[in-house]
Every structure is written in structure tokens, then in C-alpha cells.
Design goal:
The chain is of the alpha/beta class and about 325 residues long. Helix content is about 45%, strand content about 10%. Helix 3 packs parallel to helix 4, helix 4 runs parallel beside helix 6 and helix 9 runs antiparallel to helix 10.
């Protein structure tokens, strides 16, 4: 749903929101490459995700390599995504920078391309306090009021815990409609603090548990897996939607262990903190191994990772592709 000013609101945030990597050309891992983005693959992936049925697409976060893209690359990629989507699903572009002024400059271009919103993290040079974090989002919303904001709530990346008082205050900003959310341990607490003015998007494998907590409100999730074969992500969304409607959770409960047995390969010893050290490398390895999308090489300086970690990521990618083949053949 869009507001009177044609801005997406919380009621418009539902279903599966895919997050895509920024595909790189073969020479994308060379710092001498001035334009590293494979724009044809951007367009192909966006079109494929939309045709598969995703509800929204976000980009240029962590494994979207927002930190290693030039402004010219980010600008052109956003333009290609918006042109390809052609209004069929919302496009939220990532524009996380090191300061408010640069964020506003980039967001104004995102607005002018016709994108619907932004997936926006905090400036990450200096650790920020709650008043500073809230003011950042207030300033951005004031500067570019036409865009909806999805708060990118990654404590590892942004050195900020995103505590309950933060959510209580940013919920007062009309442009803040959703959050890319990592851990659902405090999901209900933060939902109550925000008075359901913010749609928290958990990871897709946490969506079952979130939907069980509040089937009427927890209706959306973010997907890092859609680019390894979107059909399984759409199936997961649909069987949870049906379970929330009927109260019969047998199908999600049966599929969940299969999904987790595959995705557990992605996380090295040490869990999420260790995974975060190599997020880009592992996610692109996983996506490339699955074969649905050609994410290409990683951009410098984030190009190396332990081989054992990369091997696990490849297993996560090929395992998801196998589950997808089972689904399409009717044997899953």
C-alpha cells in the first residue's frame, strides 16, 4: 500500500524480499577495473526474480558489496534495476555511506530513478549512540521524504546493538516502514516497542518461527537464498502463509530441517560473528555454486577467505539447488 504521497507504507511490506549480490564481470576482482558490474546479469536476475514471484528486491547491502562499489557503479545499477522492474515490484536500493550528507546525495538520485525506497544502514566509522542513530534516520527522512526506509539492522556491520529505545523512537518516522532484521530473539519486544509501525523482516529460515509468534503481523522476510533458485523461496513463503491461515504447520515443519541441513554449511565455526568476517566471499561463493545467478568474483579488498569456509559455502549453494530441483520435479 502506498500513502497519499505515493510512498510505500508498512502495509505494503509483505512476502519475500530478495536481496541480490552485485554481479561482477571477470575482471571485477582487479582494483584497476573502473566499471566492475555485469549489468546484463543484474537485469536478468531482477527479471527472473520478479517472474518467480518475489514481492520486493533490495540491493547493495553487505554481500551486495555496497562498501566496495564506486558511486558511478551504484548509480547505474540502481537505474538498471528500476528500469527492469518497471514498477512490477518495489526496488529498495542500498546507499549506506560514512556520513549523512553523502547518504542524502545518493538517496536523492535513488529517488530520481523511480526506486521505491532504500535499505539503509548506519554510518560505520564511529560507534554511534541511540540519540545519534535516531537523528540520522530523522535527517535522512526529512531530506528525502518521498522514499520508504528499510533499516538495515546488522549489529556486526554497524557496531550498534539496535536496542529497544531505538525502535520506539524511529517508529515515529513515517518513512521507516521495515527493517532487515538478523536475530528474532527480541522480535516481539521490538515489535511492541515500535507499536507495529515497522515491519521486521527476519531471515527466511526464521520466518516460520516469526509467523507463529504473530501470524497477522509477521508476514514478510528477507531472502539471501532467492538468488540460488527462487522457486524454493516462493514455496517457503506460500506454505507458511497457508499455515498461518489454517493453523496447520506440518508442511513448514517438515521442510525446515531440510533447509537448515543445507544452510548450516554456510556458517563456519564461531557462528555469525565469524561468518561476518567473510560475508561477501561466502555468499558469492554460495550463489555461484548454485548456478542460478552468476555473481562473479568479489571486489577488493574482500577477496580472500579460508578454503574450508568456501567449501562449506559451495555445499550450501549446491544443496539449495538440489532442493530446488526436488521441488520442481514434485519430489520435495
Amino acid at each position: 500500500m502506498r500513502t497519499g504521497g505515493n510512498r510505500l507504507d508498512v502495509e505494503g511490506i509483505t512476502g519475500a524480499w530478495a536481496i541480490i549480490p552485485t554481479p561482477a564481470i571477470t575482471a571485477g576482482d582487479d582494483w584497476r577495473t573502473e566499471d566492475s558490474v555485469d549489468y546484463d546479469e543484474v537485469s536478468r536476475a531482477v527479471a527472473g526474480l520478479i517472474e518467480a514471484g518475489v514481492d520486493g528486491i533490495m540491493c547493495q547491502g553487505t554481500f551486495g558489496e555496497g562498501a566496495t562499489l564506486t558511486w558511478e557503479e551504484k548509480r547505474k545499477m540502481t537505474e538498471v534495476m528500476v528500469e527492469t522492474a518497471a514498477g512490477r515490484v518495489p526496488i529498495f536500493a542500498g546507499v549506506t555511506t560514512l556520513n549523512t550528507r553523502e547518504t542524502v546525495r545518493q538517496l536523492r538520485h535513488v529517488r530520481d530513478t523511480g526506486a521505491d525506497g532504500t535499505m539503509l544502514g548506519l554510518p560505520m566509522w564511529q560507534e554511534i549512540d541511540v540519540p545519534g542513530a535516531v537523528q540520522f534516520y530523522r535527517d535522512v527522512a526529512e531530506a528525502v521524504p518521498e522514499l520508504a526506509i528499510c533499516i538495515y539492522a546488522n549489529p556486526e556491520a554497524f557496531k550498534f546493538s539496535f536496542p529497544t529505545p531505538f525502535w520506539a523512537q524511529v517508529a515515529e518516522i513515517p518513512q521507516v516502514v521495515s527493517s532487515k532484521y538478523i536475530n528474532i530473539a527480541q522480535l516481539q519486544l521490538h515489535t511492541m516497542a515500535s507499536r507495529k509501525r515497522v515491519r521486521f523482516l527476519p531471515l527466511e529460515f526464521d520466518h516460520r518461527d516469526a509467523a507463529r509468534m504473530d501470524p497477522e503481523f509477521h508476514t514478510a522476510f528477507w531472502s539471501p537464498c532467492a538468488c540460488t533458485g527462487p522457486e524454493l523461496t516462493m514455496h517457503w513463503r506460500d506454505i507458511i502463509r497457508e499455515a498461518a491461515r489454517t493453523g496447520d504447520w506440518s508442511r513448514p515443519d517438515a521442510l525446515y530441517p531440510r533447509i537448515m541441513s543445507v544452510l548450516s554449511n554456510l556458517f563456519p565455526p564461531g557462528g555469525f560473528p565469524e561468518f561476518s568476517r567473510y560475508n561477501i566471499q561466502l555468499e558469492k561463493e554460495r550463489i555461484n555454486a548454485a548456478g542460478w545467478m552468476n555473481a562473479g568474483p568479489c571486489r577488493p579488498p574482500y577477496t580472500t577467505a579460508p578454503e574450508s569456509y568456501l567449501a562449506g559455502a559451495r555445499l550450501a549453494g549446491t544443496g539449495w539447488a538440489e532442493l530446488n530441483r526436488e521441488l520442481l520435479s514434485g519430489t520435495l
